[in-house]
Design a protein that fits this description.
The chain is α+β, with helices and mostly antiparallel strands. The protein contains twelve helices and 25 strands. The longest helix has 19 residues. It is flat, with a radius of gyration of 51 Å. The termini are far apart. InterPro entries: Cell_wall_metabolism_enzyme, Dup_hybrid_motif, M23ase_b-sheet_dom. Keywords: Signal.
C-alpha cells in the first residue's frame, strides 16, 4: 500500500526512508519525452493519443533542428562532419530542383493559308530578307504572271563618278580603275601633258569622270568628259565633241600672290606672340632659324622689340589659300631696323641686307639642340682623372640629334681623331675654324663646302666620352680659342647689278601692308567646271 505523501514534490513508499529534492533541482530538471509517470495504484495510467505522439515528435525534431546547423558555410571547415552535412543539404536541394524542372515542348500554330515550297520561295524573294542574306533563293523576283524575264538588261546611258589619285599612284592606273578604256587613257594622258607634266599632278587630286555608252557589249565604256584641278591656278576639262574626238579645255583661275606680312611685339615669347597674330607654325620656325644665325634669341632680342615676317601667300578666286616659304625676316628696335633678312638667289638662302656689300661679323649659330654642360677652361677630366685644359664647349643632347655647321666653310677633316672619336673640322673665313667631336655618324666628307645650318653629323659618344654630347672647339690660326661669343666675318656675297635687284626686292616687300593678303578676291565662275559636278546636280534647287 502506497501512501502518497506530498513532500518536496515527490512520492515515497510508506515506511520507507524518505527522499527529497530541492526546489532548485526540481526547477532545473527539464521536461523530456522519456520522463517516467508515477501513478497511484488505484489510478489507471492514461496512454497518450496519436495527436499527442505526433506533437511530441515535432517538438523533438524542432529541438534537433535548433541544435544542428543544416546549411553551414561551405567555404569554411572543409571536410568536417558539419561541412559534409551542408554538402548533403546542397545536393539534396539541387536534386529536388532538377526533379521538379518543367518540361518544354514545341507549340505548333497553323498558318493563315497553306503555303507550298514554291509559294514560300516566291514570298521570300519579294521580302527584305534576301537583301540582308544575299538573296539565297537565287531569284531577283518571284515568278508570277506579272513578271517576265528580259533577254537583254538595259544599261545606264552614262555613269558619273569621282576618282582620287592616291599616294604613289599613276594617272593611267587611276583612269583604268575607273573603267576608262586603254585608247582613251592614252589620248587623255597626251592631252594633259600639253598643259603640264602628268607626274606633277598632286596626290589627292579628285577627278570628275563621265563615262558614256559601250561601243560593244563587252567593251569598256567611252570617256565622255573628265574635269580636275591641275594646278592652284588652273582647272582642266577633257570633253568628247560631236565628231567623237577628245579635246582639252583650259579654265584659268584668278590667283592673287600678295605676300602675307605679320608684325607684332615680341613680349614674353616671340613664338607665342607670332602664333597669336596668326602666323603659320612653319613660317615661325623658319623665321627663328634665320634670325638665330645673326642674333641670340635669349639675349639679343628684348620684349619691347618688334618682329616682322613676310611669307609667300596665294589665294585663288575659288577661295583656296596656300602658304609658301618665308621671304623676309626682320627685327626692329625703337622704330629702327636692327636686322633685315631676305630670301635670295638660286640657293634659296636668307641674306642680311646690311652685309650684301661689306664684310660683317656674324655670331656663330647653335650647333645642336641642347644646353651647355661644360665650358671652356681648366677642369678635372671625367675619365683621365686629372686636371687639364678643356678646349671647347660641351653641349648635352640626345643621342642621334643632328649637328649643324655654325657658319659657312669648307670641311678640312672628317673621320676618327683620337680622343675626339668621330670628328669634323671646318675652316671658315678670317683664319677661323671649328671642330665637332664625339659624333655617332658623320654626314659630310673632306673637301665639301657647307653652309651655316647644314647638317654635318649626329650626336654620339665616340672617343673619350662618358655619354652622348657634342664637344665644340674653335681655332684661330691653328690655336684653340673660346667658342663662346665667337663671331665670324662674312664676305659680301651679292654685288653689282644683283645687289641693286636685291635692294629693289627688299623695298617692294616692305611696302606690303600687314594682313593685306587676308582679304577675299572676286570669284570667277567657271560654268562648265562647276555645273558638271555630280554633287551640284544632286543638290536641292531653290524655288521662287
Amino acid at each position: 500500500m502506497f501512501k502518497a505523501l506530498e513532500e518536496n514534490g515527490g512520492y515515497i513508499r510508506d515506511g520507507a526512508e524518505a527522499a527529497s529534492l530541492s526546489h532548485a533541482q526540481v526547477v532545473a530538471a527539464p521536461a523530456s519525452p522519456e520522463e517516467v509517470w508515477l501513478h497511484a495504484p488505484d489510478e489507471p495510467a492514461e496512454r497518450p493519443g496519436l495527436f499527442d505522439r505526433f506533437a511530441d515528435r515535432c517538438r523533438r525534431f524542432e529541438a534537433w533542428c535548433a541544435h544542428v546547423d543544416l546549411a553551414p558555410d561551405l567555404a569554411s571547415e572543409i571536410g568536417s562532419r558539419k561541412w559534409m552535412r551542408g554538402l548533403a543539404t546542397f545536393l539534396g536541394l539541387s536534386a529536388a530542383a532538377i526533379a521538379l524542372w518543367p518540361d518544354f515542348s514545341e507549340v505548333e500554330a497553323a498558318t493563315a493559308m497553306p503555303v507550298e515550297h514554291r509559294e514560300r520561295d516566291e514570298f521570300r524573294s519579294q521580302s527584305i530578307a534576301p537583301l540582308a542574306l544575299g538573296a539565297d533563293s537565287g531569284r531577283h523576283m518571284g515568278a508570277s504572271t506579272l513578271v517576265k524575264p528580259l533577254a537583254h538588261v538595259p544599261e545606264r546611258p552614262t555613269i558619273q563618278l569621282v576618282s582620287t589619285l592616291g599616294q604613289g599612284d599613276s594617272f593611267g592606273r587611276m583612269l583604268e580603275r575607273a573603267g576608262v578604256g586603254g585608247s582613251d587613257i592614252s589620248r587623255v594622258s597626251e592631252l594633259v601633258a600639253n598643259a603640264l607634266p602628268v607626274n606633277d599632278i598632286a596626290s589627292g587630286t579628285q577627278f570628275d569622270i563621265t563615262l558614256g555608252k559601250r561601243a560593244a557589249p563587252n567593251a569598256p565604256r567611252a570617256l565622255d568628259a573628265i574635269d580636275f584641278r591641275a594646278r592652284f591656278d588652273l582647272d582642266l576639262s577633257i570633253e568628247r565633241g560631236d565628231d567623237g574626238n577628245l579635246s582639252l579645255v583650259r579654265h584659268p583661275i584668278a590667283v592673287d600672290e600678295t605676300p602675307l606680312r605679320i608684325r607684332g611685339t615680341v613680349g614674353s615669347s616671340l613664338y607665342r606672340s607670332a602664333r597669336n597674330a596668326g602666323a603659320p607654325v612653319a613660317a615661325i620656325q623658319s623665321y627663328l632659324q634665320a634670325v638665330d644665325k645673326y642674333l641670340r634669341l635669349e639675349d639679343d632680342i628684348g620684349s619691347s622689340d618688334e618682329y616682322d615676317m613676310i611669307v609667300a601667300y596665294k589665294r585663288s578666286a575659288k577661295g583656296e589659300r596656300q602658304v609658301g616659304k618665308l621671304l623676309y625676316a626682320g627685327i626692329e628696335r625703337d622704330g629702327k631696323p636692327r636686322l633685315q633678312l631676305l630670301r635670295w638667289g638660286k640657293g634659296d638662302q636668307m641674306f642680311s641686307a646690311s652685309s650684301i656689300d661689306r664684310p660683317r661679323a656674324v655670331p656663330i649659330g647653335q650647333p645642336v639642340a641642347g644646353r651647355i654642360t661644360s665650358r671652356y677652361g681648366m677642369r678635372r677630366h671625367p675619365i683621365l682623372g686629372y686636371v687639364r685644359m678643356h678646349a671647347g664647349l660641351d653641349f648635352g643632347a640626345r643621342y642621334g640629334s643632328p649637328i649643324y655647321a655654325v657658319a659657312d666653310g669648307t670641311v678640312t677633316y672628317a673621320g676618327r681623331h683620337g680622343g675626339h672619336g668621330k670628328y669634323v673640322r671646318i675652316q671658315h673665313s678670317g683664319g677661323l675654324g671649328t671642330g665637332y667631336a664625339h659624333m655617332s655618324r658623320i654626314a659630310v666628307s673632306s673637301g665639301t663646302h657647307v653652309r651655316a645650318g647644314q647638317v654635318i653629323g649626329y650626336v654620339g659618344s665616340t672617343g673619350l666620352s662618358t655619354g652622348p654630347h657634342l664637344h665644340l672647339e674653335a681655332y684661330r690660326n691653328g690655336h684653340t680659342i673660346n667658342p663662346a661669343g665667337l663671331s665670324i666675318m662674312s664676305r659680301p656675297q651679292i654685288a653689282g647689278e644683283e645687289r641693286e635687284a636685291f635692294k629693289a626686292r627688299l623695298k617692294s616687300l616692305l611696302t606690303v601692308e600687314p594682313g593685306a593678303a587676308l582679304g577675299t578676291i572676286a570669284p570667277v565662275t567657271s560654268a562648265h567646271a562647276e555645273a558638271e559636278r555630280e554633287i551640284d546636280r544632286l543638290a536641292p534647287k531653290k524655288v521662287g
